[in-house]
Amino acid sequence: MHIYLLQAVTQNPDSSYWYLPVGLQLLFAIAFVGLMMGVTHLLGPSRKTADKLSNFESGIESVGNARQPMAVKYFLVAILFVLFDVEVIFFYPYAVNFKSLGWEGFLAVMMFVGFFLCGFIYIIKKGALKWED
Amino acid sequence: MNVSDILFYFLSALAIGSAILVVISRSPIYSVLWLIVTFFAISGHYIMMNAQFLGIVNLIVYAGAIMVLFLFVIMLINLNTDAKPQKGKWLRLAGTVAGGCLLLVLVAALKNTEVKGMGVQVGTGDIGLINQLGKALFTEYVVPFEISSILFLSAMVGAVVIGKK
Amino acid sequence: MSNEQLLALLPFMVLAGASIVVILMIAARLSHTAIQVAGFLMLCFTVLAMGYVRDILPQEILPLFIIDGFAALYTGVIIFSVGVVGLLSYIYFEEREENPKEYYILLFLATLGAAVLTISRHFVSLFLGLEILSVSLYALIAYLRNRNNAIESGLKYLILAALTSAFLLLGMALFYMETGSMEFNAIGQKLAGSDPGVLFKLGLALMVVAIGFKLALVPFHLWAADVYQGAPAPVTAFIATASKVGVFAVLMRFSLAVNLQQSEFLLNVFSGIAIASMILGNILALRQQNIKRLLAYSSIAHLGYLIVAFLPGTREGIEASVFYLFAYAITILSAFGIVTILSTRMKDAEDLSVYRGLFWRKPLLAAVLAVSLFSLAGIPLTAGFFAKFIVLLTGANYNLWLPVIVLVLTSVIGLYYYLRIISTLFASAPAAEPRHKPLHPFFHFVTYATLFVLMVMICVLGVFPGPAIEGIRQFLMIR
Fold this sequence. Notes:
heterotrimer; B: mainly alpha; Four Helix Bundle (Hemerythrin (Met), subunit A); 2 domains; 6 helices; 0% strand; C: mainly alpha; two-stranded antiparallel ribbon; 20 helices; globular
């Protein structure tokens, strides 16, 4: 199997076999966490008292209901973040091909950014990111 | 069966299993967490199909950003147990029957096609690689690329209109 | 991309530019009036651009778009509808004091989405156009958030549209699996000669779910009445016209490319959908007291009639469908125009009681509404009659007897509820309630003039349809 993998890697530097170490590490991390949680659960003494099972709120008794609907402002900020996040992701494929795409690619990206910029001006002027009303 | 086949079936089982758990979990928070597992499994598929950029973007955007949005939405709604809507037993049964029928039709139709039993094709195709994708996106597909920015614009305006006082 | 190809996209760029202009105007805090005027000018520019690029058509932008006469016709109907909707919106939104300005951005973006659908010949552009249309519509439907049904109907549309988008994507994936291409013509060539495989049928079935949802065809019509009721009246007019025109155009283009109508089985599926839409739409409308819901059911029935013109899949079918859509757009726009004008600040004029004795209070509005209802019912000397007649003729030429017979019978049923509204128009009148905020008479004049022109168009198309059909024929030559 080792030889097979090595061959594939040498054939194609873009091959997804390069992700094998990442996958292995992921696997190892999950296994480690699972193992630790399982082992402590098994080995440690388990004494359940009411104090230990209560929610930890800096030492004082928990007050009120935690399940309160929160302001929609958070959501607005989050959704705007996602939109601009996606915008930035579109830059990666451009950056990799920056030279070969030339001016035409540059214009395309400028137009793309221009649309977003207009949206951004609108958001700022509208005060959508202003926290205090 | 070689390594890639085993990985393929493992990831598929993980994706389908966690997707089912998304639907049947009682707590919406658990649903979101299982959805993250689903996205990881799908990213794994992308990487195996040599579409590494898509795999990573799927992780950053979906497992990262969109899931935060989901959590925000869950925090926006009233989750107190007394406010939970009671779903009728018959409604649930009808939903199961309808979904089952769709599954049956899909399986029955796909059973006899030649793609049956075709495993994953690992390491072939390079359109998912970042430089190939960039070339295709900025030459052949440049118009839809610009149009997609308009799609974002409408999402932006829509969010501000609905969400802002 | 060559210069000519770029030029052919000019109308679409102007539309996108219009939304940008409106966004920047809002950012500069200009008034509603200024934005309305600018929006109208941009729409005029779009029309001018369409006229300007007419000579260089057809242009293909491989692999995604084709801008030919077919696309120009459907885009024309869309732009016309949006122009009317925009003219009607001013009074409606000016009376509601919460910000009416973003409405115009979303309207332009939705228009762009619908227009992109008419020129797309590839699944990627189809999906992008559909998504721009839907995302803008979510916000437009829920635009007047403080109203009773607004958020509810917006959410209903959002969830169902997202679900059907998933069906559409799965259908596209199955097509790709079968043919290895996402381009309509390439799919058609792959399938030519052979009987469509099971993957193709399954993919088509899944796509029909999404298309049927957008067109509100039975059995995917459940959202129609609620959304029509909850959305602001001008937005409802937009959903009933522009969004459906765009989706129908792409359905037509796709089915022509893959020779959908050659397959007996698929033909039966579509005629089944058409028959179900005609019957159910008309029957559900019978006992409806809410005029917006009634128009929703009537639009379900009308899309059923339209599918009859879709069934032959020939040049005559396309001609009939374009003429039908144009007549239908004019008619439904004038009907919703009346609803828009009669709406008060708190509530749209949706109860039938509002229309009681309208003729004695506002004879012009009553006349426009009556003519548009006659046209919807298909009474002779109106556009609706002639449109239905061409559809019937096309159906009969291709021996589609069952849909044609159902069309005639359901039209008779439809007559009942249209005439019921018309009879309330002439009933004895209650006292008229005063308007809240008197606007500048100029805008009232413009709105009334628009409605009057629409009424005249309905009559002219009903009496002299010849030039319009000749024009459609000439445009369809450009391919």
